[in-house]
């Protein structure tokens, strides 16, 4: 969907299990699930309770799905994602 201006990324937000959810495991997870997309790792800043992505996009758990338009606006943010509906929306755009 890159030719249509759509990109995908996975962001690991570490709000618990910091010993298991490490930066080093990103590649392991990427290969395990066969995801050929960019991966990022977001840990809380010192003294902060949650990673910045969770605060910026108001996510509340894992997995969480966020769709951001080209202008940086959040158009979808929820725990559940209807993949068929999402693909239909992309095809319609």
Topology (elements, then pairings):
Layout (H helix, E strand, L loop, with lengths): L8 E5 L12 H8 L4 E5 L9 H6 L7 E4 L5 E5 L4 H10 L1
Parallel strand pairs: 1-2
Antiparallel strand pairs: 3-4
Textual characterization of the structure:
- Helices cover 26% and strands 20% of the residues.
- The protein has 93 residues and is α+β, with helices and mostly antiparallel strands.
- The protein has a single domain (2-92), classed as 3-Layer(aba) Sandwich (Glutaredoxin).
- The strands form 2 sheets. A two-stranded parallel ribbon has the order 1-2.
- A hairpin with a 5-residue loop joins strand 3 (65-68) and strand 4.
> What is the beta-strand fraction?
15-25%
Identify the CATH architecture. 3-Layer(aba) Sandwich
Indicate the low-confidence ranges by residue numbers: none
Q: What's the total helix number?
A: 3
CATH superfamily: Glutaredoxin
Question: Sheet bearing the most strands, described?
Answer: 2 strands, parallel
Silhouette? globular
How many domain regions? 1
């Amino acid at each position: 969907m890159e030719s249509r201006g759509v990109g995908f990324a996975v962001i690991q937000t570490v709000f618990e299990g910091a010993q298991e959810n490490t930066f080093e495991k990103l590649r392991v997870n990427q290969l395990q699930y066969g995801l050929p997309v960019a991966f990022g790792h977001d840990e809380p800043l010192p003294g902060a309770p949650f990673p910045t992505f969770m605060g910026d996009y108001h996510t509340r758990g894992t997995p969480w799905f966020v769709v951001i338009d080209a202008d940086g606006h959040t158009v979808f943010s929820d725990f559940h994602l209807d993949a068929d509906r999402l693909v239909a929306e992309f095809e319609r755009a």
